[in-house]
Write a structure and sequence with these properties.
This protein is an alpha/beta fold. The protein is 38% helix and 13% strand. It has a 5-stranded parallel beta sheet. Strand 3, helix 5 and strand 4 form a beta-alpha-beta unit. Helix 4 packs parallel to helix 5. The longest helix is centred in the middle third of the chain and has 14 residues.
Length: 151
């Protein structure tokens, strides 16, 4: 069982890679999104939202049909994203649609639209500068006296 509040992201492609090779060869029409959503529902608390990362309209429809709460449309160009989201919301109005991949502050307005519920920008964390710090713990009696260094 997962800790409360833990988000679960199960891309169908990743799940498919974990399945034995014979399954892919012998069952090419297998719905990996349905397997992923079913596994997430079995493993997680009922209150946890299940999000499935999709790279096509077909995957997105499969994920929504399987009961995903959110469908992440990954690496879609704006001209592909909006028609896909429109079709998805028309069929599954209660499914949230998230846009992700290749979104920057400069092109953000192109990804905004009436059928996009969430926009994720990895560049917010990927472009952030690193901060080098450490935390040292000492026993109460062995704690050093802090020294102030003025520069």
């Amino acid at each position: 069982s997962f800790p409360p509040g833990l988000a679960l992201l199960l891309p169908p492609v990743t799940l498919a890679a974990l399945v034995d090779s014979w399954l892919r060869e012998d069952c090419p029409g297998l719905n990996y999104a349905a397997l992923a959503v079913r596994a997430a529902r079995q493993a997680a608390d009922f209150a946890l939202k299940v999000e499935v990362e999709c790279s096509s309209l077909q995957e997105a429809v499969q994920a929504a049909e399987a009961g995903a709460d959110l469908v992440l449309l990954d690496n879609f160009k704006p001209e592909e994203l909006h028609p896909t989201a429109t079709v998805l919301k028309a069929q599954f109005p209660s499914v949230a649609v998230e846009a992700s991949g290749g979104i920057t502050l400069d092109n953000l307005p192109q990804f905004c639209g009436p059928h996009i519920d969430v926009i994720s920008m990895g560049m917010l964390t990927q472009a952030a500068p690193a901060l080098d710090f450490s935390l040292k713990l000492f026993a109460k009696e062995a704690a050093p006296v802090p020294k102030i260094h003025w520069s």
